[in-house]
Design a protein that fits this description.
Elements (H helix, E strand, L loop, with lengths): L19 H29 L9 H7 L3 H29 L4 H27 L20
Helix pairs in contact: 1-3, 3-4
Bound molecules: protoporphyrin IX containing FE.
């Protein structure tokens, strides 16, 4: 007689320590929920409020990033979405490749891309200066005092 195991029985003995796959699964749901708020807030403020999409230019971005509120909004959006997207891609790599060199290379490339993009993106958000001191006046936007 064939015995069918209960659906939730572990396929191998449970491992000790932190279950990273479980936390990754929880992260996808929590970040997905927060991303809905952050993405729709971003689209509403940039595309609908005031003059809408026609108002977007260099000065619009400079104005938003003059406020710590929008700097932190965009920073949170960047970190949550990038890590969410990369963890989702990791799932796809696990699903479509076998363990081995190709899989490892893809995951290392993914991790490297995440580190580079998070570093550059965070630096841009917090060090952005629309009126850098010492720039030639003709290169500065009209709202800068030195222009
Ligand atoms: C409205 C915002 C978003 C919500 C609510 C959301 C929700 C989710 C959820 C719940 C999953 C897990 C699905 C599963 O395990 O079966 C998922 C997977 C994924 N998400 Fe998002 N997500 C959002 C935005 C994004 C963004 C901005 C990106 C890209 C940067 C992204 C890329 C991915 C990828 C690549 C996967 C893996 C797909 C797969 O396993 O087949 N998502 N998303």
């Amino acid at each position: 007689m064939t015995t069918i195991e209960a659906p939730r029985s572990p396929s191998r003995p449970a491992r000790r320590g932190v279950n990273l796959e479980k936390w990754g699964w929880i992260y996808m749901r929590l970040s997905g929920f927060l991303l809905v708020v952050l993405i729709f807030g971003h689209l509403f403020v940039n595309l609908l409020v005031g003059e809408g999409v026609k108002a977007i230019d260099f000065g619009f971005v400079a104005g938003k990033w003059a406020s710590p509120f929008w700097q932190w909004w965009d920073c949170l959006l960047l970190w949550l979405a990038l890590i969410h997207g990369a963890n989702g891609m990791r799932t796809l790599v696990n699903d479509y490749t076998n363990p081995g060199k190709v899989q490892t290379t893809l995951k290392v490339a993914l991790g490297a891309a995440v580190i580079v993009l998070l570093t550059l993106g965070t630096l841009v958000i917090f060090t952005f200066d629309p009126c850098p001191a010492g720039s030639p006046a003709e290169l500065l936007p009209s709202f800068c005092p030195a222009a």
